[in-house]
Structure formats: structure tokens, C-alpha cells
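[Solved] Which block belongs to which protein?

Original post:
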Amino acid sequence: MVETEVCFQQIIFYIISPVKYFLKIIYKVLLLLVATNSFAAIGTITEQSNTAPSITRKSSTLSGTKGTGVEMSDTIKTTQGKVGITFEDHTKVDITENSKLVIDEFVYDPNSKKGGKLAVNIALGTARYASGQIAKNNPQAVAINTPTATVAVRGTDFTATVDELGRSTFILLPSCPKGWVDIEKDCKTGKIEVITDEGKVILDKAFQATKVESKETKPFKPVIVNLSEDMINNLLVLSPPKELRESDADKHKNKAEAKGALDVDFLAENKLVDVLAKEEKEMYQDKLSRNLLDNDFLANVLDIINAQLAAQLDLLGKTKTGLLPDYVPTSGVTVEVDDLQVTLCREGNGDTQCITTPKNQNTTITQIQGPVEIKNRINNGGNTHITATQN
């Protein structure tokens, strides 16, 4: 009887042991698969509209629909659609139509305040970057590259636009909470460094911009572009702002000319907005599906708006009546006009002098900078006199 029990126990042991060994192997394989998947998934496509982007991963191509994971070394290309990517550290990158983004490197440990690294390459089109935890922990660990420049991020938002030749335009954006009302009160603006082989510039003011022609040239001197964020989303992808398209010589030559469409908050100019909206509606039934790389559209849209704006403001010096009867373009005075007020600015002696007055008020403005004295009437001048003097 005892021998029978021993034999039975041995039989059970020989049966159970391989099963336990097999279960251990399965358990280890599952752990390995989970670990591998966790390592590979560095972010997710959280927003996607119109045509889904393609994701090139090693030798395969995936469709980047909402919810698709992204991995290191992925190349994301958009055509007639937009996509938003949220990385594991909550860094967000939004890509517009006809763009290309390469994820070069991503390392992140949520339990480490010092660890982490992010490097992406914006090869073509427009992308918007919003800093996540890696940039907050260690700003030096984030590098955003284009074919002609590298951006060192100091915890902020910005857009980068790259054309077919690699020329890059960067605009620093304010970081605003949900439901913000006033940019200056509710939002924060960090700073970025735009770096080439020949030098670098720092952007630290909202809507400050620079452009890079090649790695072998210095970035343009930063300028503040008078754009709302909606205007950037709708127009920047089409063409760099006028300020950045002008060479230094062109800037000097054109400084006194009528302000361009990107120099004025023309969202307040209802007629211009209505005209542009009507033209866009006729040209494109679906705004997200339009071909943003159409050469004729790229070349003409801002010129058309600029001509409309100049005609509306009547600032070309062809008449001696109206809002600014004494205005002379060659005086060096630039003008900004909205529904409520008029602003006259002039650069001289290394300083900029600006005076703002109600649009419907009769005012005489005198601007004195060293030996230069410029006088302009608002409407018919009247009895209100404003004089600004700089030595």
C-alpha cells in the first residue's frame, strides 16, 4: 500500500512539474511582451482630422488614426489632414497639412526628475510644440530640429514652419490655460533659442518671430508679429510674415510704407475678414482639405490682403483728406489702425516712439527725435495736441 502511494505521488510530480515549468515560461514571455510594448509606446495620436497621416516604422507603413501609438524613429507624414500627438511626458505636438515629423529620440521615467530626453525633427510643413514634463525637469534635454536650425526650449509653446528648401520660421506663442480671456493676464510666455552654425537668437516675447535661411547663416533679428493665434493657424503655414520676408535693406526701404496684413489685427476689420472668408469659401469647400502648398495661393494671398488693407486705410499719400491728411510714407512713420484707435510709430536714434489716440478724435501729433520733427493730423487736427520728444 505504501509503495502504491509513493508511485502515485511520483506520477503526479512528473505530470505537474512540466506544467509548472511551462506556465513559468508563459509568464516570463508575457512579462517580456508587456515590457517591450511599454518601452515602444512613447506617445499616442490624440487628435486627428480629415485624412489620417501615414506612419513609417522600420519597413512598414501604418495609418495614424486617433488612438494609434507612436514609437521612437517613427516618421509621421500628413497630406490633407491634421494630427495631434501627446507623448508620455505630456509634451504635445500638433502637425498641420502636408507636413513631416520624425521622432529621433524619446526617453522618459516619470519617477525621475532629472531623467528624460526628447528630440524631434520637423522636416516639412508646420508644427506646434507645447512643453511637457521633460522640458520642465531639464530644458537642456529637449531639442527640436529643422533642416536649418535647432530650437532649445525653455518651457513654452511655439510654432515652426519649414518650406521645401528647409527654410524655417519660428514664432513664440503664449501658453494659455483653458478658458483664457486676456493673453497678458492669463497666459505665460517662456523663451526659446534658435540656433544655427553661425549664431543664435532668443525669443522671449509673445508672438516674437525669427527666420533661418540656412545652417550657414545667422537667424534673422527677432521681430514681434502682430498676429492673433487664429491668424497664425490660418496664415502662417501659407507664407512667413511680411516682417521676416523682408531683407534688412527691404525693411529700411519699406518701413514707411503702408502696414501689411500681418502687421495689423485685421480680425477687427470686418470688411477684410468678410472678403477673405468669401474668397476662401469659393476656392475651398473644405478648409482642412485645401492644398496649402499651392504655389499661386502661397504667392498671392498675402499680397491681395495687403493691397486691400492699404486701399481701405488710405495711407498711400495719394490724398490730403481723410484719417491722416498729412501722412507721408517716406517720413519713417508707420501706422496701425483698428476700429477704435490710431497708432503712429517711428524709429529713430535707436528707439521706437509710439503714440495712440482715438480714431474719431481730432488730434495733432508731433513726434520729435533729435533733429527730426514729424507732424501728423488725425482727421482735421482740432484743438488736441500731443508732442513726444526724444533726444
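(Second protein starts here: sequence line, then its C-alpha cells.)
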Amino acid sequence: MVKRFIHLSPARQRLIRLLQNTNFGKIESLTFKGGEPILEKSVRRLREVKFGSENCSRAEDCLDDFELK
């Protein structure tokens, strides 16, 4: 069965969107409860800028649904 974005829980969808928007960087202070990400105000996103590369969010960021790899 093909996994799709729309089949994820709302919390997992928010995490995927955060990762897509970050592209290069890292997420700090992210916790999970019962296998679900808890995106609280304490979660910190650190973006890296790569010179000579595209630093925008991923193309899937604007899609309502897409296949997960």
C-alpha cells in the first residue's frame, strides 16, 4: 500500500510541513508521545543557508497530498 500525506495524523502532517519548510537545518526539543510528535512552543527550528544551493522550502510544501517515501 502506498503511504500518502493525507493518511497521516494532523500532528504528523504538521511535522512533515515543518521539515519541508526547513529543508536544510535541524529541529530541536521535539518530543513524541504515543508515537505522535508534540509540536510545542519549545520546539526550535534552525535553518542552514547553503550558498550556491536552493534554500527555499520543498516543492511538496504547496501540495495538499503526495506520496510518502
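Accepted answer:
You had them paired correctly. Confirming on the second one: The radius of gyration is 13 Å.
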